[in-house]
Design goal:
The complex is a heterodimer of chains A (about 120) and B (about 110). By secondary structure, chain A is mainly beta. Chain A is built from no helices and eleven strands. Chain B is about 0% helix and about 60% strand. In chain B, strands 2, 4, 5, 9, 10 and 11 form a six-stranded mixed beta sheet that branches. A five-stranded antiparallel beta sheet of chain B has the order 1-3-8-7-6, with no helix packed on it. Chain B is mainly beta. The chains are: A mainly beta (about 120), B mainly beta (about 110).
Amino acid sequence: NAGVTQTPKFRILKIGQSMTLQCTQDMNHNYMYWYRQDPGMGLKLIYYSVGAGITDKGEVPNGYNVSRSTTEDFPLRLELAAPSQTSVYFCASSLTRPGTGERSNQPQHFGDGTRLSIL
Amino acid sequence: GQQLNQSPQSMFIQEGEDVSMNCTSSSIFNTWLWYKQEPGEGPVLLIALYKAGELTSNGRLTAQFGITRKDSFLNISASIPSDVGIYFCAGRASNTGKLIFGQGTTLQVKP
């Protein structure tokens, strides 16, 4: 049981390049999320998905796209990389919606992150 | 947009000391979560709080959901070197339903 797996772990892009950050989970979770974490800051939600075929914008969606064709995978796409997108990106999944009062030991499982630098 | 104010921003303490950190919001929250993040890893949930006034412990960690529903604190007793990391609060706002994160508290423990 691998949990949430993110690839790659590190990447350097040139301005204007595109890339896809991969995220997969093997826990059959309905909810999946993409966050970015900037130095000294908390996590900001980029996009989330409540199930296959359904995605919605989070707090900072500009410059990103997502798709959810399967329950397991939730890739994040950067079409035209910009220096402002230099960050650490975390994917997460949950069986239930975090904080809904449905108690569980781990409302959200996080991947280990992808460190992305845009130069 | 909505924000959580987490303090202190960083702490440098001696092993064995107790630690306290808190988060406050201008709006009412119906859930508070506390996470720990170690270098190179994603956040790991420590404690979840779902009811105003709730006090929950997880080993040496204790967290409380404030009565006003606008704040929460996390205490760590008798700190040890492996407590080092960044601690994040997260809350779900009652009016928007969105889960938002605090800025984090970086904890360093001196053996």
